Amino acid sequence: MSSEHFDRLLRLLELEREAEREEVRLELERLSPAEREALGRTAARLTLEDVEESSFGGNTLIFTRRPDDSDLSPFHAMDQGDSVRVNAPAGVEPRFFYATMERVEPYRARVSVDTALPEGLPPARWSLDLVGSEATYRRMRRAVTEISAAKGIWAAKLRDILYKEASPDEGEDRPLEPIDPALNEWQLSAVRSALRCGDVALIHGPPGTGKTRTLVEVIRQAVRRGDRVLATAPSNVAVDNLLERLLPDMDAGMRIVRLGHPARTLESLRRGNLRMQVLADPQYAQVSTLEGERQRLAKRLARSGRRGIPAEERSRALGELRWLEQESKRLELELGRKLIFSAQVVLTTHGGITRRWLPGDFDLVALDEASQATEPLSWLALLRGRKAVFAGDAMQLPPTLRSKEAAEELGVTLFDRLKRLLPSGMQTLLREQYRMHASLMEFPSREFYDGKLLAHESVRAHLACELPKVKKTELTSAALVFADTAGTGWEERFDELLQSRDNEGEAGLAVKIVDELLEAGLKPRQIGVLSPYVAQVRKLKSLLPQGVEIGTVDGFQGREKEAVVLSLVRSNDKGEVGFLSDTRRMNVAVTRAKRLLTVIGDSATLSCHPFYRRFLDHVALRGKHRSAYEW
Question: What's the pTM value of the predicted model, to 2 decimals?
Answer without folding.
Answer: 0.85
